[in-house]
């Protein structure tokens, strides 16, 4: 068994974005990312600032902690990062354990690395990063990942999600949608104000940006089979992922 | 051919709620409802106030109008009400025409009447009304509808959505979820301030109510396999459905 580097376990709360937006879920946040996006909202998972808080845990320890915190109030677990596939060759142990207990599993990754256990994830979001992130997409790897998901009949469990901050990001989103037309496609408004943790201030700003994105997408005939969403958790609790869920007081494991 | 009583055709805009929240779509709003919910946000469809604006249209006339307004910027049409199944025995003509043009079709109904063409709807939302509506659910009919959808293998195209204003509505939601555990289940925060059309005033209020609903659902072990959503269109454009989409200036047909 290989251990999983865990930074936070908390919930239940809602999934704030993407293909299962609103889903009641627990979060397991893992450490480590192979990217360093300009606007990363969970940079503490990879920039070293929280490295003393990382706890290496076996799957069954994670499961025990989930039950301790979430009781019988959940049946869905989101494995979050960072980018879990960057480090974790063996997340299948945790996924199977959760499945045995009739729980569903969601995971998001930028699609920089394939892992076999992607085929076991119930809600898999591929979120390649647009130009504003300052990262470069490896199209060869992304092609391979999506081919493997299609060949293995996983489309109903997969989505693409592009975060959009500006016009260039929108062009990137178009390109991704055209390249993979069969994959359910989500556009998400970017949050450019990570320091603003006053939800009431942030919400108005984010809703204006959301309206901008809606306008752009509605008038674009290359973006028809799409869904456009805000981050609803940021509207309610503010922008910074860590501590964003102030009503659950994220119990850091230690 | 039987004609369809149409009140509004507009879009493209986003679907603001439910199973395909965020989906780029056109709206065809039909007249007529067999209910009169206390908090109906589209009462003009059935209270007589807009009866002079109803235009009876054939399916191909509706299709022509949709293309005229939406151009090549859509591939999804939401048939809205009122309650379309209350009057329309033959919506299949319109649905098939849209399918022939590779468009998907969504429809919401409270589930007070079965129609054969439910089996052709791509995104069918059943939204039985909770106690705060002052309406009474006919469980026999709702059971029949859901049985028929399950028998015909339509679960992937179906969802239940309960609007929640208060504790009693929440108990009602629990009951519905327990009665039909196999059907994807959505909880939606109710908008109790339909007169407030200043989006900035309304959004803060709705987000508070949304947070209340999230808290309630997170601590309720009977509501695990669920999704909790706001009405995102109301956050952006305000509460009253008619004219709520102020950026498209709904072109009333006439
Ligand atoms: S891929 Fe995700 S976790 Fe990694 S740097 Fe980018 S936004 Fe942050
Ligand atoms: S069923 Fe819908 S349209 Fe009919 S009165 Fe109730 S809320 Fe209004």
Describe it.
2 copies of one chain form a homodimer. In chain A, helix 1 crosses helix 3 (92-100). Chain A is an alpha/beta fold and 254 residues long. In chain A, helix 5 links the parallel strand 7 (158-164) and strand 8. Chain A has a 9-stranded mixed beta sheet. The first copy, chain A, has a single domain (4-237), classed as Alpha-Beta Barrel (TIM Barrel), CATH 3.20.20. Helices cover 30% and strands 20% of the residues of chain A. The A-B interface holds A 11-14, 20-24, 71-76, 156, 186, 199-200, 203-204, 207, 210-211, 214-215, 217-221, 223-230, 232, 235-236, 247-248 and B 11-14, 20-24, 71-76, 156, 186, 199-200, 203-204, 207, 210-211, 214-215, 217-221, 223-230, 232, 235-236, 247-248. The structure holds iron/sulfur cluster (2 copies). The site of one iron/sulfur cluster has 12 residues of chain A, from loops. One iron/sulfur cluster is lined by residues 33, 35-37, 40, 42, 45, 81-83, 110, 129 of chain A.
Biggest interface, and residues per chain? A-B, 44 and 44 residues
Spell the H/E element sequence of chain A: EEEHEHHEEHEHEHEH
CATH architecture of chain A: Alpha-Beta Barrel
The helix count of chain A comes to 7
Report the bound ligands by name, code or SMILES: iron/sulfur cluster
Name the CATH superfamily assignment of chain A.
Aldolase class I
Global outline of chain A: globular
Structure class of chain A: alpha/beta
Oligomer: homodimer
Number of domains of chain A: 1
Distance separating the two termini of chain A: 21 Å
Q: Could you give a short account of the major beta sheet of chain A?
A: 9 strands, mixed
User: What is the class of chain A in the CATH system?
Assistant: Alpha Beta
- Report the uncertain regions of chain A: 243-254
Percent of residues of chain A in beta strands? 15-25%
């Amino acid at each position: 068994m290989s251990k999983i580097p865990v930074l936070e376990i908390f919930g239940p709360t809602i999934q704030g974005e993407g293909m299962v937006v609103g889903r009641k879920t627990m979060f397991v946040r893992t450490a480590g990312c192979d990217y360093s996006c300009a606007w990363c909202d969970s940079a503490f998972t990879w920039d070293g600032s929280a490295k003393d808080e990382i706890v290496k845990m076996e799957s069954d320890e994670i499961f025990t902690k989930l039950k301790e915190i979430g009781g019988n109030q959940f049946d869905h677990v989101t494995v979050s990062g960072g980018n879990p596939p960057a480090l974790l060759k063996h997340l299948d142990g945790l996924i199977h354990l959760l499945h045995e207990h009739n729980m569903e599993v969601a995971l998001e990754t930028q699609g920089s690395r394939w892992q076999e256990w992607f085929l076991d994830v119930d809600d898999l979001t591929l979120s390649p990063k647009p130009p504003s992130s300052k990262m470069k997409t490896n199209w060869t790897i992304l092609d391979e990942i999506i081919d493997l998901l299609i060949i293995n009949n996983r489309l109903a469990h997969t989505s693409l999600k592009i975060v959009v901050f500006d016009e260039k990001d929108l062009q990137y989103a178009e390109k991704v949608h055209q390249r993979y037309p069969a994959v359910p496609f989500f556009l998400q408004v970017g949050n450019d104000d990570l320091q603003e943790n006053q939800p009431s201030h942030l919400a108005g700003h984010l809703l204006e940006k959301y309206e901008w994105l809606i306008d752009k997408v509605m008038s674009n005939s290359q973006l028809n089979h799409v869904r456009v969403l805000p981050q609803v958790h940021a509207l309610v609790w503010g922008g910074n992922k860590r501590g964003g869920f102030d009503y659950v007081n994220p119990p850091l494991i230690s």
